[in-house]
From TrEMBL:
Organism the protein comes from: Halolactibacillus miurensis
GO biological process entries: regulation of sporulation
Protein known as: Spo0E like sporulation regulatory protein
Gene3D superfamilies, per database record: Helix-loop-helix DNA-binding domain
Membrane-spanning intervals of the chain: none
One Pfam match: SpoOE-like
InterPro entries found in the cross-reference section: HLH_DNA-bd_sf, Spo0E-like, Spo0E-like_sf
GO MF annotation terms: protein dimerization activity
């Protein structure tokens, strides 16, 4: 996945996580699951960015 698409997915996932957290709380299992997905996306982005440098 190219960096631009990955950044878009990161932004969308972050927004989704914030909505869920605001509605159900940060400790809700759904918010935690989305947070873990966001972590994976951010790690992937960092790895791809490091390969470019």
């Amino acid at each position: 996945m190219c960096l631009e698409k990955l950044l878009k997915q990161i932004t969308e996932t972050r927004e989704h996580m914030m909505l869920v957290a605001n509605e159900k709380g940060m400790n809700h299992h759904e918010a935690i699951k989305i947070s873990m997905e966001l972590d994976l996306l951010l790690n992937d982005y960092q790895k791809k960015l490091n390969k470019r440098i």
